[in-house]
Amino acid sequence: MRHRSIALAGLAAAVAGLFAGRRHRRPGSGTGRSAVSPSSTRALAIARDVFCLGPTGRTQTNVYFVRSGTTWVLVDAGWAGDAALIEATARSLIGPGAAPAAIVLTHVHPDDAGSARALAEAWRCPILLHPGEVAIANGDFASMERFAGPLDRWVVLPAMRAIGERRRTALLARGSLAGVLRELEPDGTIPGLDGWRWLATPGHAPGHVALVRTIDRVVLTGDALVTLRVNDLGGILLGRQGLSAPPRYTTWDPGAAAASIATIAAVEPTVIGSGHGRPMAGPGTVAAVRAFAERAAASRTATRSEVHA
Q: Which helix (H) or strand (E) holds 8?
């Protein structure tokens, strides 16, 4: 157990450095056009009316543009410096001045929700998310402590406590999504996305959701199930692709996360668009996701057995 803890600490420290560097290397911090190269705005069609911008940067982060009839929705919003790139891609895909019906966030971690407020204000659209994410999205420090993952407990929360309550409150207020948030409909429907529903997939975050198109089982999984080997240091540094559970170092409840992978597998997804890594499709996708879910469940069972032995 001691060796495992040391390895996890090393992995978390390395990832924290990579994530911090990623935030400073992204071009553009507002919604201006000058910082974005036209060649960088190309989005890949991963299914009918579903487009992926990414993977980008060391963290291979993705955002998705989803059309439904005459409307469209942005799913996740990248890092805080990604607004200009996302806006430029929207103009390229949808046309100038075409605002989305909403921005849907799978969860509110900084690599997935970083540009949400800037984009919501530019487009004058709401941000939709699960009720379980609202307190954190509004900058509630007690909720951040309650739902902290290992990296939060070891690095983020100690740093935020060290700066003092006054500075911490001001910092959280600047990052808050208060005033532009709306909770997702409890019946699973998504305004602006007919034929899609949201699916509760907690674990990585308390209110994490995945989005499912029912007619063809395209699933946008956020970080509940990713296609980059985020729990392997070599996978992060070298960008190795492959199905993976959410990153351990930023996951609040590993047991719930394993159950959420099983929930996604039960949908029998034909296409996986995750928060990190290349989208996955093809005739073997259903079987691959099912097999991975079984391995994740077995691994979780083995870990619990070790703890209680």
A: helix 2-25
Query: In this structure, which topology does domain 2-308 adopt according to CATH?
Result: Metallo-beta-lactamase; Chain A (3.60.15)
Q: What are phi and psi of 274, to 5 degrees?
A: -105, 175
Domain residue spans of the chain:
2-308
Residues 43/49, Cβ–Cβ less than 8 Å: no
φ/ψ of residue 67, rounded to 5? -95, 150
Strand order in the sheet with 280-281: 196-200, 209-213, 218-222, 271-274, 280-281
Q: 49-98: per-residue pLDDT in tens?
A: 999 999 998 889 999 999 999 999 999 999 999 999 999 999 999 998 88
- Rg, C-alpha atoms of the chain: 18
List of E strands, 173-249: 181-183, 196-200, 209-213, 218-222, 226-228, 241-244
Structural contact between residues 285 and 58, judged by C-beta atoms closer than 8 angstroms:
no
Give DSSP secondary structure letters for 15-82: HHHHHHHHHHHSS-SSS-STT--GGGG--EEEETTEEEEEEETTTTEEEEEEEETTEEEEE---STT-
What is the per-residue pLDDT across 211-229, written as a single tens digit (0 to 9) for each? 999 999 999 999 999 999 9
The tokens for 249 are 């170092």
